[in-house]
């Protein structure tokens, strides 16, 4: 048993009929050389069922506190139905990537059943060339990027033959959920203690109110922050002016605003060797190159839709703040770094220079903010108001300028082949989420076994042509490679500063 953190509960309570807050992955597998000769749903149930005792987030179900007086708990599910959680479906011939993306989009648009552990896995048959796919989704309240990778590490193997796993301890008894009276008393005590906690943390929290994603776009907040800054400077608690300048205000785009329940999903891979060639030519990082690719793709899409803003887009990049002691605990330990994407710049070399500088500025801003700021602000309101407050805040964020234009996430992955029930994994494409506040596009990238796997999920009505974006990544890669090779012969200037 463990209690959700305030940030975990925010992911739970922000969910609406159009915004579903689960994340997952599309895994492509090749069964040709599998020792079993195939991959069946029975194989998956046997594999995951035999390792379920090692994967807390897949065993947990929600246990609500009466009257919403306190944060919910994760408790061990008394009844577990693997046939419900692990299912199979098939594509009709010919089983193209576009058909697979459409099927994943439909599955991603369905909510998870909150009376059960919050995850589902689908084995998808019928892909071209005899391939198969797994689409797995887990609620964001249970995992973030790091804890999600921990789940995959337990399920996957480094060899075709699955490793032996120690069985669960037959004498182990799961913790019982708190009784009604105990849960209510805990909740009442926390409500009584909340003002004292707020006062204790206020000197750290209040000077950083504008560092919360989207805070500067909410009417009235910048004025409040100015007053707070004056008071804190007089008290000697903080000097807001000494911190880096805030991220630029995001412009309006066709993919910002209220989303619909419908999704589209596209995926593609780029060779990591080519990304590193660009990285080395300009003294950048792999993440710099990923962001440059995304910037070019977004610029191209906006130009084609006659919607290119005159100012940079602003992307939110999730960053793990998980400590070594928090590894293996599930839940969310993340913060968000905002960075400007110079989509308005026509010259690709200048665009790359500007992006690199922007990323360094974003890192400087991020390092100036307490790592647990998002957790602390999430804990301010009583749980009984969390759902209402989360949804009200999301509506407020969509009334003026968006808090940012989209999420872009780059997740480092293993650089060796992995196997699922004996079948080799040939691609692992993240499938994230979109929202009213976070924009109708989410681009998440995972490096795996010598390539970068891009997953792009969108609101269907905002971005009906998501596969154009996926194909555009290859054009953007070609452009960067040409620049890198010209750089090697002295034909292009180097990025204006080296990566840190």
UniProtKB/TrEMBL annotation:
Pathway(s): Glycerolipid metabolism; triacylglycerol biosynthesis; Lipid metabolism
Residue ranges of every copy of the O-acyltransferase WSD1-like N-terminal domain listed in the record: 4-290
Enzyme class name: transferase
KW Zinc (keyword) present: no
Pfam families cross-referenced by the UniProt entry: WS_DGAT_C, WS_DGAT_cat
EC number in record: 2.3.1.20
Entry coiled-coil feature ranges: none
InterPro entries named among the record's database cross-references: Acyl_transf_WS/DGAT, CAT-like_dom_sf, O-acyltransferase_WSD1-like, O-acyltransferase_WSD1_C, O-acyltransferase_WSD1_N
Domain O-acyltransferase WSD1 C-terminal: residue ranges: 331-480
SUPFAM superfamilies named among the record's database cross-references: CoA-dependent acyltransferases
Record keywords, A-Z: Acyltransferase, Glycerol metabolism, Lipid biosynthesis, Lipid metabolism, Transferase
Signal peptide: none
Catalytic activity: an acyl-CoA + a 1,2-diacyl-sn-glycerol = a triacyl-sn-glycerol + CoA
Family from the record: Belongs to the long-chain O-acyltransferase family.
Database matches in NCBIfam families: acyl_WS_DGAT (TIGR02946)
Protein's name in the database: Diacylglycerol O-acyltransferase
Source species: Rhodococcus antarcticus
């Amino acid at each position: 048993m463990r209690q959700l953190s305030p940030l975990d509960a925010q992911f739970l309570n922000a969910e609406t009929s159009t915004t579903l807050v689960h994340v997952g992955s599309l895994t492509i597998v090749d069964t040709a050389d599998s020792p079993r000769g195939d991959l069946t749903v029975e194989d998956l149930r046997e594999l995951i069922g035999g390792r379920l005792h090692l994967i807390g987030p897949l065993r947990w179900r929600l246990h609500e506190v009466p009257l919403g007086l306190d944060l919910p708990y994760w408790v061990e599910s008394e009844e577990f139905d693997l046939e419900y959680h692990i299912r199979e479906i098939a594509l009709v011939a010919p089983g193209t990537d576009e058909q697979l993306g459409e099927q994943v989009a439909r599955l991603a648009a369905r909510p998870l059943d909150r009376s059960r552990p919050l995850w589902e896995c689908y084995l998808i048959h019928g892909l071209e060339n005899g391939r198969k796919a797994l689409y797995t989704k887990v609620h964001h309240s249970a995992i973030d990027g790091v804890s999600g990778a921990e789940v995959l590490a337990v399920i996957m193997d480094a060899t075709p033959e699955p490793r032996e796993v120690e069985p669960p301890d037959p004498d182990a008894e799961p913790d019982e959920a708190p009784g009604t009276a105990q849960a209510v008393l805990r909740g009442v005590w926390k409500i009584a203690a909340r003002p004292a906690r707020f006062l204790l943390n206020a000197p750290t929290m209040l000077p950083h109110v504008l560092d919360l994603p989207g805070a500067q776009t909410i009417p009235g907040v910048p004025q409040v922050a100015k007053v707070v800054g004056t008071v804190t400077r007089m008290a000697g608690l903080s000097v807001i002016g000494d911190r880096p300048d805030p991220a630029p205000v995001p412009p309006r785009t066709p993919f910002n605003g209220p989303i619909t329940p419908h999704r589209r999903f596209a995926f593609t891979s780029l060779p990591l060797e080519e990304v590193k060639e660009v990285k080395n030519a300009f003294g950048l990082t792999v993440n710099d190159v990923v962001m440059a690719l995304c910037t070019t793709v977004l610029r191209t899409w906006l130009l084609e839709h006659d919607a290119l803003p005159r100012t940079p887009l602003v992307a939110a990049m999730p960053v793990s703040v998980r400590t070594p002691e928090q590894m293996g605990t599930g839940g969310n330990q993340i913060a968000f770094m905002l960075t400007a994407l110079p989509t308005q710049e026509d010259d690709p070399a200048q665009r790359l220079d500007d992006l690199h500088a922007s990323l360094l500025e974003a890192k400087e801003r991020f390092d100036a903010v307490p790592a647990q700021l998002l957790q602390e602000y999430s804990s301010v309101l009583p749980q009984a108001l969390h759902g209402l407050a989360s949804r009200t805040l999301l509506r407020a964020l969509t009334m003026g300028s968006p808090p940012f234009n989209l999420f872009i996430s780059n997740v480092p992955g293993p650089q060796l082949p992995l196997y699922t029930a004996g079948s080799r994994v040939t691609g692992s494409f993240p499938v994230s989420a979109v929202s009213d506040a976070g924009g109708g596009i989410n681009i998440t990238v995972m490096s795996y076994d010598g390539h970068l796997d891009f997953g792009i999920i969108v609101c269907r009505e905002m971005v009906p042509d998501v596969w154009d974006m996926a194909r555009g990544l290859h054009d953007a890669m070609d452009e960067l490679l040409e620049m890198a090779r010209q750089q090697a012969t002295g034909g292009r200037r180097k990025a204006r500063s080296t990566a840190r």
